[in-house]
Fold each of these.
Amino acid sequence: MKIFFEYLGLLHIEGIKNKSFIDVKENITAAELMTELQIRKEHQKFVSVFINDKEKSRNTVLNENDKVKLFLPTGGG
Amino acid sequence: MKKITYAQLTARNSSKLKSKLKKAVVGIAGCGGLGSNVAIALARIGICKLILVDFDVVDPTNLNRQQYFVEDIGKRKVDALLEKIKLINPFITLETHHIKLTKKNVQTIFKEVQIIVEAFDQVSEKAMLINAFGGKLFEEKYLVMASGLAGFSSSNSIKTKKLSKNIFVCGDNKTDFMEEGVMAPRVMIAAGHQTNKVVELIDKIF
């Protein structure tokens, strides 16, 4: 299935165009998506997940055409 | 001390805001470079109440970007910031917490606020604030975060971006303090973005 995918902050995901439709497995969770995208485990725990403009748990199952945004803030303040 | 009126303090404000600032309560999560600048800017325009939270004390290395003086070194940041704010705005109500914000206490400490300003240093703390309640904290409140304010690259790369209905992030989303250092100019730009988003939200909420 396809989802619309965007990433922000410190995330650098090789081979995926930011703000584009990507193919993912049926019934995949946001957490599984992070692993599929090879986001490092030590980063995953600080990544926030937004689905269709709402902050969601990483265990949320994704649906066709969901707008999925992953955000890893940078440090400093 | 010389006396002023609230009307004098707010005389140059946008007339659209009028009494709205008198109703707003804003939480400041971290009183470092971002938090001290945001708190002082909000105090200057006559906000009703701020809840200041920080576990740290003022250190000499803070002075390159934070609103503290040499005489403040060693003081709790929340206490030093309270002193500064009272010199600017005697009408404000300030509540201070010298404590580390955690997912266990954040809901209680910020129960009263309509808007939370995320002004932490550490990525883990920034993530904690968003993720604390699986988004439930921000069903009714707004969160204005910062991400990417290090170094001295273009000022114009700092933007305010909407992450969700109730969460905004200000910064370039790239630069990190561990690699590029952190200094007053870009910290103050990001803090200015955060403060202005807070004002926009106050106008929208009330």
Amino acid sequence: MKKYLLGIIAIFMAISLSAFTIVKHEVSGRAMQNYSYNDYPDDANINNPTHYTEVATLFCSGSAHRCGVKANDDGTGHPVLSGAVILTRN
Amino acid sequence: MKTVKKTIVPDIISALFILLFVYTALTKLMEHESFRAVLSQSPLIGINATILSWVLPILELFTATLLFIPTMRKWGFASSLILMFFFTCYITYMILFARDLPCSCGGVISAMTWPEHLIFNIFFTALAAIALRPTLKNKLFIAINRNSRTPV
């Protein structure tokens, strides 16, 4: 039993960690979606949800301008910007 | 003291790898669609994304199982070394040649940047190599003694 103790502890920690990180992403019972910012590289409308479009994946590398967000849907196909994960690109 | 050191280091390394592989496999399986979508956008993977999105987490769980069983641990370390080596090569390729790097945006490990993830992978690849080395060294020792017929 001693031989397996560290392994059992590692498995329990892995299950707890993965459950914790999945739950963190689901707010109001829905997983967060990806939204691409339509006006890149113009950052004038980054706080306007109607300037975002839901996409399957986002490609954002760098930090100069708003690329998109990962957020919950507001029910109209646009993101809820408060609490959203901001993504940027060069 | 030496005997304790001999067993405790591989035990700790195998526990670390079990934690890593079980966590990443569960995250990939629970967010499978997102993982498959990110893989499909990679120039290296492309159309093989669906198959890989299942094979990778299953391989990780299989490796974790090998590491969990003490008698199979050396095979687990070998499998860990191969997996980590290929993951490291993939990340290196993406950093050097990919025009846009995808964001999987999920889990503790995915919160790292691509360069941070590369360093993380190099560290674990080295750890797997370190853990595997003593098991190979012991076999060599036995072979030499058998050939020379001198008592151990």
Amino acid sequence: MNRRTPLAATLVATALLAAPAFAGDAECSYLEIGASGGKTAIDAELKALEKKLTTPPLSAWTEFHKLSGGNASLDKLKAQTLKLAQGGASLLLRDRTDKRLELTVTMDDHSGKRVLDVKQALAVGNWAVWVASNAKAEGHILALTCK
Amino acid sequence: MKPRDSELMQAADREHRDLTVPAGDAQAKVDAIAELGELVRGHVELSADAVPDAKFAAMWKRIDEQTAAPVVESRGLLARVTAWFDRYRSHIITGAVSAGAVAAIAIMVRPSSPGDSSGGALGNSINAQPVQFRPAEVESLDTPGGTGTVFHLTDADGRSTTVIWVAPEDSVEGL
């Protein structure tokens, strides 16, 4: 083997390793939460959000129950539908870097009526929370975090 | 009195100026010693002159070889590229090692890739992730039939979270 082959291989490997690590996809986790003003209770499965749920203005409610939750694997510019216990939601990853995601999120209520359509950027690892309240002072919360 | 040989040697070296050398054998000895001395001194001086000349000649020869312009040969592209790599090998290796070190640091500090989900086998498990204290940026917000409000909530740990709250327009108190 030529003695220069390792040098060339090192240069190529360095160039490949220096390339961006992300191809545009994202792995997200979501929680659908029902909120009301009943007795103070927060489901154990909501522990990751407990400190946020007990902080104003969300602390206006005292009872939080997990309705559904799971993971969503997002492909860039491909809408992903979330089947919620109450209504539905969709996520669209428009772009991302290693620190930031640009999302389009929609939420529909239990009757299928669109209640929210938002474009926002989310830092990787942060939570974003969307709340739809009704006339009965009950809340329907969708929380999302992505990496 | 006949002078001794040691005295004749001193006389030949002009160290014994008071000695009167009688003619004959004594004078012949003095002359022979003086001639032999001249020969020895001449040989030593020539040898001393010859040694530095040889050293300087070798040194100048080496300098000439090193400063001489390289012989330009008609070579192929591959040979010229190879020669270039040979000439700048240390620069290239330094650059490659530096780039490798930077790449290694970038790999170590970057977050894990999207495929490295730690969500576990259950579909509804929650990924625990380090939270950065940076609120989300809302580019556009549409809340058909309701009123949208954007909060930047800071919890007890000082972590900021963006909350978008949609209240029905017909609600009495809204939020």
Amino acid sequence: MTHNNKAAGRRGEPLVLNRLSKYFGEREVLRHTQLSVAPGQFIAIVGRSGCGKSTLLRLVAGLETATEGAITVNDKPLNGLSDDTRIMFQDARLLPWKRVIDNVALGLPPERRGDAMKVLEQVGLADRANDWPARLSGGQRQRVSLARALVHNPRLLLLDEPLGALDALTRIEMHRLIEDLWQASGFTALLVTHDVQEAVALADRVILIEDGRIALDEVISLPRPRSQGDAAFAALEKRILDRVLQKPPAPTRESFTHPIDGESVWPGLPFHGVRWAV
Amino acid sequence: MTIPNSELSTMAASVHPDQPWVGPDTNIPLSWHKFNSVMRDIWQRLLPWLVPVVLIVVWQIASRLGWLSTRVLPAPLEVVTAFWKLAVSGELLTHVQVSAGRALAGLAVGGGLGLLLGLLTGTSRLAETLLDSSIQMVRNIPALALIPLVILWFGIDETAKLFLIAVSVFFPIYLNTFHGIRGVDPGLIEMGRTYGLSRWELYTQIVLPGALSSILVGLRFSLGLMWVILIVAETISAQSGIGYLTMNAREFLQTDIVLVGILLYAALGKLADVFAKALERYWLRWHPGYQPA
């Protein structure tokens, strides 16, 4: 009982990144990243593939250690994995040999299985509790994965492109669900995405990472729930997208590989009309 | 399905008698069609059994007429009688028990060791570097090539048989356990770590279940090998067991009992495979490949 009461009173954690740098060998992925997130804020991090946004998330999760700089969560320096932080991965990463309810209850003490069922109800999958994950659709799997993260009452939820593989309709449904659950629980959220529309739909602040640095920090003050057909929404989305696409990766004469991620880039790619950052 | 007969016959009447037959004969009552399709179904099921049954009948007749010497092959009915007599006297059960006991003891020792070492080398890089290449070298020695050495070491009694079976079932289980563990999705293990699972929980809830399908493949290979090695070991020398039964019968030219022994080995092998398959169906019931459609 005490746990539940405590959970209800819990708020999101403030998060501060101070001159955070990360190298993989010689390769610099993040350089001197400076970011401060208020408790309960919803941050979306956008950027091209390989810009370092996923690395940033993994650093905050404690799955990687920074080469330089520090991460402070709730005014305490981050030291490895934290019980108050949960991640939702790009692939749902459900255990195929556990039924849906057991996946949600992963890592929970047995007496809290009831909570798992409650959260499963919140994501609308209570009737699938005893199914195998293999029987679920992609969207349902991500909903189970969301439930699995939320049952721990995280104070910081990290979302690593969790909706990237879903179809457009399911994605819009998931946006609503994530927004509702975030508003109800008040956790701090960090969403990594390559979909600018998704970022504008969900976030209080959209942050663009370019070549390992924060290139844009845009506050989104549109009232919630946000409608994607809205003119202000569309204008904002266009502005950020234009900014994302503004700096084409400069190909050199010797090679056409991107200096950061090593991916080949076709020079002079016609970016106009490309909805997704490549 | 309840069209009255009178209607059917009017439909039939509309077909011109001179015209060639173009469809099912609607003049026949529907129940007859149903009966026909059931019969066809039964026929389809029985058809694969036709050749074996004919062979056995021909064999029986050939033996009766003296075309086939009982020294070569006894009549099928004699084999059945021999089986029955052995079963009633209790001899059959004793020998089967002894043989199955040997096989299972060898499997428990060799398979258990294979599982344990596979788990160890699969989990720890240090253990892999230390042990794996040595194990791979020993793996290339066929277990049966060890027979002379094994006889020198253990004589010809139970220990020798147990050793041979254990050695041969060790490798399939070891290899498949090792590869099963290495094949577990690292993403799932990472997920488990971020969800606060302890090392033990990670092992029992993610690594082992993830390796299980591979381990079971190893078990099925091992079960096949287990019977082969048992047969060889029991044929070399035994005081009891199915091998003893058949070798003893061979001395007295009792081909019917020899055949009973051979069929017993076949049945035990099949039983082990059915058991392993049932294990797969139960333990891998989460796997789309093992779910009923």
